[in-house]
Design brief:
The protein is mostly helical. The protein is built from 19 helices and 2 strands. It has helices at about 20-30, 35-40, 40-60, 60-65, 65-85, 95-100, 110-120, 140-145, 150-160, 160-185, 190-210, 215-235, 255-260, 270-275, 280-290, 290-295, 305-315, 335-345, 350-355; strands at about 250-255, 300-305. Helix 5 crosses helix 12. The longest helix has 26 residues, at about 160-185. About 35% of the residues are buried.
Length: about 350
C-alpha cells in the first residue's frame, strides 16, 4: 500500500501506512532475511517467557516469595506483551497456531480471544480515542460525563495521574471485564461464553497447580497478577491523545532498553499503528531509520522515556475526561470532523503540554 499523502490516512484495521515507497522497499528487504522469515526472535521470546514463568513456580520454595514474586510479575507482564504480538500475526501466519501460545492465562485476567477482537477494533485509527468506538480509550462523551456521579468523576481524575493509573487502573479494567463477562452470559453471547469457559477452566487448573507449589490463589491474584497488570499501565498511561490528525494520536516514547524489551518496543506506538504487522524486533530499527519523519508525523507527540510522565503526572491528572472533538448530543464523530478539516486544508494537532493543561 503506497501512502504518499498523509491526508488520506484512512485504512482498514491492520492495513499498513508506509512513509514512502523507499520505506516499503526497505521493510520488504528486511523481511527477506532468514531471521525475519523464521521469526527467530519471537520463537526465542516464547521459549524464554514460558520457561521462565513455569520455572519460577516450580522453584518457588528455593527462590523465596520476594524474588519469586518479582520474577513472576515481570514474566506475566512480558507474557501480555507477547499476547499482543501473537494477535498481530507472529510468529506464524496461522491465527489458530498463534492463539495456542496466548490462550494459557498466565496473566489471569483476560481471555485471549476477547482481547484479540477488542484490540483489532482499537486499530481502526480513524476512531482512536473515540469515546464510543475505541475499546482502549480513556475519553468520555459530554453526555456520559454529565450523568456520572461525582465520586466516579473523582476516581477518573485520580486514575489520570501516573500513580493513580498504576493503582486504580487495573481495578477499573477488572471491573469492566467482569461486567463484560456477565453481559455475555446474560445475553447468551455464545462465542464470548465459550471463550470465558475455556479461560476460567484453564485458570482454575493453573491456580490449583500453583497452589501445589506453595502459591495460594489469593497471593497469585493480588501479589502477582494485579501488579503485572499495573506494569502494563506504565506503557499505556499516555499512549494516545485526542488530536484532529489521526497520526498525531499515538505517541513515540524513546524509553530505555529494559522498558523496550518488557513492552516489545510498543513504546514506538505510532510506528506500530502505522505498520501493525511489523514484528516487535523491527519497530525500533524502522523508527530510528525514519526518526525525523515519524516525529513530524506524530505532531511531535514525543516522550523522553516513562520517567518524563512520572515527573510530570505522578500526582497531576492528565486532561483526559470529555473528548474535545466529539459531540455526544448530535453524534458528530471524530472522523467526520477530521474529514472536514482535511477538506479545508487544516489539520492541527495538540502538543503534550497542551493536553496536560
Amino acid at each position: 500500500m503506497s501512502t504518499a499523502d498523509a491526508k488520506s490516512d484512512y485504512r482498514p484495521a491492520g492495513a499498513a501506512y508506509y512513509l514512502s515507497r523507499q520505506q516499503r522497499a526497505r521493510i520488504k528487504q528486511l523481511s527477506r532475511s532468514w531471521v525475519w522469515r523464521l521469526e527467530l526472535p519471537t520463537w526465542a521470546l516464547i521459549s524464554v517467557i514460558y520457561t521462565g514463568w513455569f520455572a519460577c513456580v516450580i522453584y518457588w520454595q528455593q527462590l523465596g516469595s520476594v524474588i519469586g514474586s518479582v520474577f513472576l510479575i515481570l514474566f506475566s507482564t512480558w507474557y501480555m506483551s507477547l499476547q499482543h504480538e501473537l494477535i498481530h500475526g507472529h510468529p506464524t501466519r496461522w491465527r489458530r497456531v498463534n492463539q495456542l501460545f496466548g490462550t494459557l492465562p498466565l496473566a489471569v485476567w483476560y481471555p485471549y480471544g476477547l482481547y484479540r477482537d477488542s484490540h483489532i477494533q482499537h486499530h481502526r485509527d480513524e476512531d482512536l480515542t473515540h469515546p464510543e468506538k475505541d475499546p482502549e480509550g480513556y475519553y468520555y462523551t459530554a453526555e456520559q460525563w454529565r450523568y456520572f456521579p461525582s465520586v466516579f468523576k473523582s476516581i477518573v481524575r485520580i486514575s489520570n495521574t501516573f500513580i493513580g493509573r498504576l493503582v486504580l487502573g487495573p481495578a477499573l479494567d477488572i471491573i469492566d471485564t467482569i461486567r463484560s463477562a456477565t453481559r455475555a452470559f446474560i445475553t447468551g453471547d455464545r462465542p464470548a461464553i465459550i471463550m470465558w469457559l475455556i479461560h476460567l477452566g484453564l485458570l482454575s487448573l493453573l491456580l490449583h497447580w500453583m497452589s501445589s507449589h506453595g502459591i495460594s490463589t489469593i497471593f497469585a491474584i493480588l501479589v502477582i497478577a494485579y501488579p503485572a497488570l499495573s506494569l502494563t499501565k506504565v506503557r499505556s498511561f499516555f499512549e494516545h491523545r485526542a488530536a484532529q490528525d489521526s497520526a498525531a494520536r499515538s505517541t513515540l516514547n524513546e524509553a530505555a532498553w529494559p522498558w523496550r524489551l518488557l513492552f516489545l518496543n510498543l513504546n514506538y506506538h505510532l510506528v506500530h499503528h502505522d505498520l501493525p504487522a511489523l514484528p516487535w524486533y523491527g519497530l525500533r530499527q524502522i523508527y530510528l531509520e525514519n526518526r525525523v519523519q515519524y516525529q513530524h508525523r506524530s505532531g511531535y507527540f514525543v516522550v523522553n522515556g516513562y520517567t518524563q510522565w512520572f515527573e510530570a503526572f505522578a500526582f497531576t491528572a492528565l486532561a483526559i475526561e470529555i473528548h474535545p472533538f466529539y459531540d455526544s448530543e448530535n453524534k458528530t464523530s471524530i472522523s467526520k470532523r477530521q474529514h472536514d478539516k482535511i477538506d479545508s486544508g487544516d489539520s492541527p494537532t495538540q502538543t503534550p503540554s497542551q493536553i496536560a493543561r
